[in-house]
Automatic annotation (TrEMBL):
Residues 411-572 form the Adenine deaminase C-terminal domain. PANTHER family: ADENINE DEAMINASE YERA-RELATED, N-ACETYLGLUCOSAMINE-6-PHOSPHATE DEACETYLASE. GO terms for molecular function: adenine deaminase activity. This is adenine deaminase. Keywords: Hydrolase. Belongs to the metallo-dependent hydrolases superfamily. Adenine deaminase family. It holds the Pfam family Amidohydro_1. It comes from the Bacteria. Residues 78-362 form the Amidohydrolase-related domain. Its EC number is 3.5.4.2.
Length: 581
């Protein structure tokens, strides 16, 4: 319906004007507010009138009609706009709803999210129904439109067809194309991707890059082809190169790349002291990383590193909204904007004591306001517990490949030559090599190899959480791997650890096998338990969840295990194809 294209209908706009005329009462009046005015780059005082979900006036005047109006004296408090997370992956075991609810308690009230799992795991109609229903929660949810699968999937031309991409780009909730993990294809002459970029630009939508380690020349080429921003800088020199080529630079601090302190130190060393072309992001961190906050944590780091306080807040608010062309609605406290406001104890402490999101209190005087995020029935969007109507057998766990993959860190894998006997049903606990199987969730194909560096004493792990939703099995003992798989199957999806036939740890993921329905506070506990058990068994890297997610991800070097087989990323070739079952 055409009316859904507008934030407010005509009758709503007339009512907003009637508040100024004294014919309608505001719903909330914030008196004597010291707030961040980003036009003047100053802390100023004003009275702020709110009607339902919109700020209808900011200035010296007070309304004449205040019947049924909640009046709050803001003396002694500091008001800043609700924070914006510009680069979320809201499917890292948590789901978009639980992330939004949790983030609101730390003042992040607008989230711009990856649509990859929606494309890979939802039908388009169901995905768009989810986007529609998420408009009803206090958090404002925007989305990206991916142009590639970030791996080598079967029938990619159908999943990322022109009609599908066009439908996503045209959606009102989609603000950008990208992130461009498939940019090498673009440089190699992929004109369809270039056409999609052109279409996004025609619609006044941005293009986010994904250019780790890119040279100055590559950055310039990608800018010419349409890229607008990038979040992959890992030192000050890379920040400088991106700024020089005209990029909006998104400074990352995440569970897998906690880079922000170093980036800010490097920027100071290089004399970079202009921040209007910068924003802050957490790049889809796993839930334990968010224990101490989300965007507020990044603002705090920036302030502690000597960034001017107003610039620190701007990098999490108005810089982002201006970049995405939504500053007429978000990112600042001014007439006409959505009523997303954080109430602080001091300018130096960005964690709010109270939070308004779309004019609703989601946090009040340090306490969460219950019941403002309506529960969701995920089955309405096709997300039910996994129903695997096939059986795994010992015949599926036959290993004969001449080389395996070696983990360099949480996510980078290289090839290595095998030097151990892999003909038996169990591997020794004296080394860090394990059996590794990726198997189609429909049971149609599999690929088996050896994985070095993940753990040294892990009997078995089964996971339905992966980049493509296919099943990952890792372990030293084939019988325990079967047991772990069968338990994961009983749970309807999840991550299961088994040792000597006994379940050591399990984390159910009943939402399609990829997400939990637990509140993030509870999910943190479950994830910490899983991390601790893996650490006991020799996992020494930062983030096992990202390890599971990225085994198939071809935007990272060097060898990946994909739906098409063992894939050489640098040479863009399948080394060993998957085996049909």
């Amino acid at each position: 319906m055409i009316e859904q294209r507008y934030r407010w209908k005509n009758k709503h706009l007339r009512t907003h004007v009637s508040v100024l005329d004294g014919e309608t009462s505001p719903t909330i009046l914030l008196k004597n507010a010291t707030y961040l005015n980003q036009t003047f780059r100053k802390w100023m005082k004003a009275n702020i009138w709110i009607y339902q979900d919109r700020i209808v006036y900011v200035g010296d005047n007070l309304p004449s009609h205040i019947k049924n109006c909640e009046i709050i004296d803001c003396t002694g408090q500091i008001l800043v706009p609700g924070y914006i997370e510009p680069h979320a992956h809201p499917f890292q075991l948590y789901n978009p709803h639980t992330l939004a609810e949790y983030a609101s308690q730390f003042g992040t009230t607008t989230i711009i999210s990856d649509n990859m799992p929606l494309v890979l795991n939802f039908k388009k109609r169901e995905a768009f129904s989810l986007l529609r229903d998420l408009r009803n929660i206090p958090t404002t949810m925007f989305w990206w439109c991916r142009f590639d699968s970030q791996t080598e999937i079967l029938h990619e031309e159908e999943t990322f067809s022109h009609s599908n991409i066009k439908s996503w780009l045209e959606h009102d909730a989609v603000l950008q194309g990208g992130e461009l993990t498939g940019w090498p294809k673009l440089l190699d002459g992929d004109d369809m991707m270039l056409h999609w970029i052109q279409e996004a630009k025609r619609m006044r939508k941005q293009i986010e890059g994904h250019f780790p380690g890119a040279s100055e020349k590559t950055l310039a080429k990608m800018m010419l082809l349409g890229a607008d921003s990038d979040h992959e800088a890992i030192n000050g020199e890379e920040v400088y190169n991106r700024l020089m080529q005209g990029y909006m630079v998104s400074l990352r601090h995440s569970s897998i790349r906690p880079d922000l302190p170093k980036l800010l130190d490097d920027m100071k060393r290089l004399g970079i002291d202009a921040y209007d072309r910068m924003m802050l992001n957490t790049d889809g961190a796993t839930s334990p990383f968010y224990e101490q906050g989300i965007t507020d944590m990044l603002i705090r780091i920036a302030i502690e590193k000597g960034i001017p306080v107003i610039d620190a807040y701007n990098m999490a608010t108005v810089n982002i909204s201006r970049y995405y062309n939504i500053d007429h609605l978000h990112g600042n406290i001014a007439t006409g904007r959505v009523a997303n406001i954080n109430f602080l104890e001091s300018k130096e402490n960005p964690t709010p004591v109270s939070v308004l999101a779309k004019g609703k209190w989601v946090k009040r005087d340090g306490a969460k306001v219950e019941g403002v995020y309506p529960s969701m029935d995920w089955s309405e969007y096709g997300l039910k517990p996994l129903e695997l109507n096939w059986h795994l057998t010992m015949d599926d766990l036959q290993f004969s490949m001449p080389f395996g993959i070696k983990m360099e860190n949480s996510v980078i894998t290289k090839p290595y030559s095998l030097s151990i006997d892999i003909s038996g049903d169990e591997l020794e606990m004296t080394h860090d090599e394990s059996f590794f199987t990726l198997i189609d969730r429909q049971g149609k194909w599999r690929i088996n190899t050896l994985l070095k560096g993940f753990a040294s004493k892990l009997h078995a792990l089964a996971s339905s959480f992966s980049n493509t939703g296919d099943i990952i099995l890792i372990g030293k003992n084939k019988q325990d791997m079967l047991t772990a798989f069968n338990r994961m199957k009983e749970l309807g999806g999840g991550i299961v650890l088994v040792e000597n036939g006994e379940i050591v740890c399990e984390l159910p993921l009943p939402l399609g096998g990829i997400m939990s329905g637990l509140p993030i506070e509870e999910l943190m506990i479950a994830e910490k338990t899983l991390f601790a058990e893996l650490k006991k068994r020799g996992y020494d890297f930062n983030d096992p969840i990202y390890s599971l997610l990225f085994f198939s991800s071809t935007h990272l070097p060097y060898i990946r295990v994909t739906q098409q087989g063992m894939y050489d990323v640098m040479n863009k070739t399948v080394l060993f194809p998957t085996i049909m079952r």
